Amino acid sequence: MDNAQVILETARWIEGRLREDLPVPAIAAKAGYSLHHFTRLFAAVIGMPPKEYVLRRKLSEAARDLAGGMRVTDTAYEWGFGDPDSFSRAFRRELGCSPSAVRRGAPFPYQEPAAGRIPGPPVDAEPVLERFPPVLLAGRQVRITGPGDEVGRLWAGFLPRAASIPRRARPLRLRQLATWTEDAEDWVDILVAAEMETLDALPLDLIGRAAPGCECLSFLHRGSAARVGESYAAIYGTLLPSLDRKPSLPFNFEYYFEDAGDPYSEDFRFKICVPVA
Q: Hey, what domains does the chain have and what are their CATH numbers?
């Protein structure tokens, strides 16, 4: 059983225990992974960190009970919340409406269970081992803590700016750099950037980073940028383990070709580069 299958089996195990207290370290132990490795694999395969997934599944099923007429207090205790107030706060934060409103018939976003999901990644299964030299980058950064389109919005704001950055490399070469720390459970920093000749006198609206040189496995993504999560799930969950390779540094990056094409077309292509040991 590969890593992606283990994560999906773990999601099935979670489904049968949603009314219980499910701390992430206990779920990781059940899956047979370290906390850090499990959290990254789960987010890659399922699309969100395990803590957020468990909470959204609990709240989604609780919302169904509320829609069926169950009282708010009873629902809170039924789904493992310590008190109705903490339940209501989590409900509003995650689902965007109050428990009482759902009980009165208001619609609510429902988090589908991931147990039956089968990854179908738009990524080549045979990567190329490449040596990338150190590079200077300048761009804009956001910290990602859950699902959403923050990265898309970041690119939309940065692309019109990129060509006018002083002292950038020519021709214009774009990268996306993802970094984290070894103890990070549910966040990653994303920098969308242009390669630079120097970071001296950098404009105030940009962040400069020096990315180290490294040996990477480069995977070619083919298809809409909206499906890149599927490629990452396959790379970290299946392809790297099948090649007996492990990430060696706490970052990866995307390298964009000059003729990459429309990001939301099926002809879009770019490299996903993972430093490996």
A: 3-103 (1.10.10.60), 128-275 (3.20.80.10)
